[in-house]
Write a structure and sequence with these properties.
The structure holds 2 protein chains of 2 kinds. Chain A is mainly β. Chain A has 2 domains: 80 residues, Aspartate carbamoyltransferase regulatory subunit, N-terminal domain (Alpha-Beta Plaits, 2-Layer Sandwich); 37 residues, no CATH class. In chain A, 10% of the residues lie in helices and 36% in strands. Chain A has 2 helices and 8 strands; from the N terminus they run E-H-E-E-H-E-E-E-E-E. In chain A, the strands form 2 sheets. Chain A has a 5-stranded antiparallel β-sheet with strand order 2-3-1-4-5, with helices on one face. Chain A has a 3-stranded antiparallel β-sheet with strand order 6-7-8, with helices on one face. The radius of gyration of chain A is 17 Å and the shape is elongated. By secondary structure, chain B is an alpha/beta fold. Chain B has 2 domains: 134 residues, 3-Layer(aba) Sandwich (Rossmann fold), CATH 3.40.50; 156 residues, Aspartate/ornithine carbamoyltransferase (Rossmann fold, 3-Layer(aba) Sandwich), CATH 3.40.50. Chain B is 36% helix and 15% strand. Chain B is built from 10 helices and 9 strands. In chain B, the strands form 2 sheets. Chain B has a 5-stranded parallel β-sheet, covered by helices on one side. In chain B, helix 5 crosses helix 6. The two termini of chain B are 15 Å apart. Classes of the chains: A mainly beta, B alpha/beta. At the A-B interface, loops of A face helix 4 of B.
Amino acid sequence: MNIDSIRNGIVLDHIKPGKAMEIYRFLGLDALDCSVAIIQKAPSKKQGRKDIIKIDSEMSLDLNILGFIDPEITVNVIKDGELVEKKHLHLPKQIKDVLKCKNPRCITSVEQELPHIFVLTDPKKAVYRCMYCETKAE
Amino acid sequence: MRSLIDIQELSVQEIDELIATANDIIARPEAYREKCRYKKLATLFFEPSTRTRLSFEAAMYELGGQVLGFSEAQSSSAAKGESVSDTVRVVSGYADIIAMRHPKEGAPLVASRAATVPVINAGDGGHLHPTQTLTDLLTISREKGRLNNLTIGVCGDLKFGRTVHSLIAAMARYENVRFALISPEELKLPSYIKKEILQEKHIEYVQTTDLAAVMPTLDILYMTRVQRERFFNEEDYLRLKDSYILTPEKLQNARSDLSILHPLPRVNEISTAIDDDPRACYFKQALYGKYIRMALILKLLEVA
């Protein structure tokens, strides 16, 4: 499948098969006023099958959050129909206000205005722990 | 400006320096009597802990400083709903250093990010208590003359016992340290600590329910209390609280140079019949807690 149908926009490639809708919702792509194509379970040389999302609009993405959801995703930036940049993601060192700490003893359980920050403590196993109480993210 | 929230923030070298300072304070207390003159320590204790608070206060007084603060949340602005951040922003204007105990985990970290003076974590719920660990390290160092080449038995509540978790993490940084983890099945050391600290660093350990079986191997026996406040369920607490009670009979096959430590307060897990045994170090340990806190206050206030 080619990416030449987009003039200026972003292609999220190598999404785990079946995960595209989750990412679509998480990034709030339904609110965009442009064409968004979701391709599910497309053949992939690298991973057998993959999902792809094509967004026909230049938008800023939080690559940290996207990397947290799936670090294998490739972000292709398209300008004037050409691929101008390919970004490989990685697990972010910390994520803010994406997950909520569920430990009832954590300070965030009583102080509502504190940001919920999780820190990557084991990159091999993708383990994140609450910055305040060190509870493992589920 | 530096705070101490987690013992892991200190390098082995810094811990060694703190121990050296504490030893010097013990040897020459008069040299330190004016070190913190005109300095103030705020003890912000959102939950009661007489021992830790008095230890901090005594430490500051012995350095010639002064102390202000509160000893329970009801007598603080937290009872009116003030955030930890707001409280410490205000207190930063009144004191040069803060020691904070809070029932919620992570509260001292929040405080250290908002304060403009150093914050010492004096215990946050069941999470961290770095000055207790420093106390334990000073005690082991003074009793054994070293922090390496030791077999350390930790006994009692290894699941919720934060002092044990911190002690294991801190001692794991020294060479040739082995652990015996002695607890009832229900209160075993959490598996993440075994994986992330003991197995990751290839540290030798045995896990057992039988204290007598490992007793002859131990250089240090670190006893802990099964704490009522860490249980959600009174029934479980009552069932497990008397799991291990150290008595003179149980010490019969222990080494003559064993050192018995306990973070205190004890309930009944060490028989009072052991108090006069030369191997009982827990009251000395409480005293050393004051000296290591003096060393820490000096370090964080950058007083030479």
